[in-house]
């Protein structure tokens, strides 16, 4: 009698695909035999923690998976006759996508089925981020289709109905946003997906009358808020205590960040960006651990904020 495949075996396909990508990312020009041995070893480890995971592994399976990976993820894997092995063909943008997939796989494989790990693994509890709309929005962006949706701003009690031209998707601080031109006032705005509901992808094609380049728009920005019309980037010099400085060195505040001084007493950095609300809020979150050395206008704004905060305790 044929053995029934457990319905959870779909996880096996995804696990195998991501194991192949992970291996080729770390070691290019791998033979099918080497790839098979690696996947078999990793699969055995996964099955040890989840006996419902059904994953078959063979060289024929590897060949089929490589084709599936191309079709499902858009990841190109090619055989190099000179090097006698398989390798990923990737661009810089692809590399970011690979890293995200590998991070997701590492999280999935580490936490899945680990019920006994509940006391040891504390996962952040947060509301859904609206990522179920990413696929539909990307389809609308690529095909220039108008979208309609209901939107609820944090600072307003009522919801509003919007019709917009979607241009791009952007992530910031674990939240996804769609950058779209609101047809009501023809301004490009950022709409958080976790505050967006009742999304409809219409069949109406829009024509781009005013080109929008998201990369250029946010090139000198920290966060999701774009600069005011006519606002120019400026030099910002910050002094941080050495402890906070270690965090800022490993996770720069902005891609323009340059280290001017790195000593036992201080980390001094220079940024070139537009001082937007998002950036000011980030500096406020650092409190006494950061001192603005320039510009004077930013110094004045923070002094006023701290004075008002202090007055609340007097």
Structure, explained:
The protein is of the alpha+beta class and 314 residues long. Helices cover 38% and strands 25% of the residues. It is built from 9 helices and 11 strands. It has helices at 10-26, 32-49, 59-73, 92-111, 134-143, 214-217, 242-250, 277-286, 296-311, and strands spanning 76-80, 85-89, 145-151, 160-172, 175-182, 187-192, 196-205, 234-240, 258-262, 267-273, 290-294. The strands form 3 sheets. The protein has a 5-stranded antiparallel sheet, with helices on one face. A 4-stranded antiparallel sheet has the order 9-10-8-11, with helices on one face. A hairpin with a 4-residue loop joins β9 (258-262) and β10. α1 (10-26) crosses α2 and α1 packs across α3 (59-73).
Low-confidence segments: 1-8
Main β sheet profile: 5 strands, antiparallel
- Give the helix level as a range of percent: 25-40%
Class derived from helix and strand content = alpha+beta
Distance between the termini: 80 Å
Taken as a percent bin, the fraction of beta residues is 15-25%
Number of discrete helical segments: 9
Overall, the morphology is globular
Number of strands: 11
Q: Radius of gyration, rounded? A: 25 Å
Order of helices and strands: HHHEEHHEEEEEHEHEEHEH
Strand order of the main beta sheet, please? 6-5-4-3-7
């Amino acid at each position: 009698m044929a053995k029934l495949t457990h319905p959870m075996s779909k996880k096996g396909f995804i696990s195998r695909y991501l194991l192949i990508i992970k291996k080729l990312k770390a070691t290019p020009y791998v033979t099918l035999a080497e790839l098979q041995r690696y996947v078999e070893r990793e699969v055995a480890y996964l099955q040890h923690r989840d006996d419902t995971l059904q994953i078959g592994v063979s060289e024929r399976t590897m060949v089929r998976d490589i084709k599936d990976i191309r079709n499902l993820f858009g990841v190109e894997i090619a055989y190099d006759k000179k090097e006698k092995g398989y390798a990923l063909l990737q661009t810089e943008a692809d590399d970011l996508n690979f890293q995200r997939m590998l991070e997701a796989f590492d999280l999935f494989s580490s936490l899945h089925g680990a019920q006994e790990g509940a006391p040891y693994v504390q996962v952040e509890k947060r509301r859904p981020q609206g990522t179920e709309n990413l696929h539909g929005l990307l389809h609308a962006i690529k095909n220039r289709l108008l979208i309609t949706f209901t939107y609820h701003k944090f600072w307003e009690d009522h919801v509003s109905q919007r019709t917009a031209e979607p241009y791009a998707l952007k992530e910031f601080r674990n939240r996804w946003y769609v950058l779209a031109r609101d047809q009501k006032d023809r301004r490009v705005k950022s709409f958080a997906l976790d505050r967006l509901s009742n999304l409809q992808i219409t069949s109406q094609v829009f024509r781009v009358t005013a080109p929008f380049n998201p990369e250029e728009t946010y090139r000198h920005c920290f966060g999701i808020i774009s600069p005011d019309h006519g606002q120019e980037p400026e030099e910002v010099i910050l002094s941080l205590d050495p402890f906070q400085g270690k965090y800022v060195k490993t996770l720069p505040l902005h891609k323009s960040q340059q280290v001017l001084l790195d000593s036992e007493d201080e980390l001094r950095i220079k940024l070139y960006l537009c001082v937007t609300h998002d950036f000011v809020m980030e500096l406020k979150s650092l409190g006494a651990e950061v001192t603005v050395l320039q510009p004077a206008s930013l110094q004045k704004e923070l002094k006023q904020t701290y004075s008002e905060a202090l007055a609340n305790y007097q």
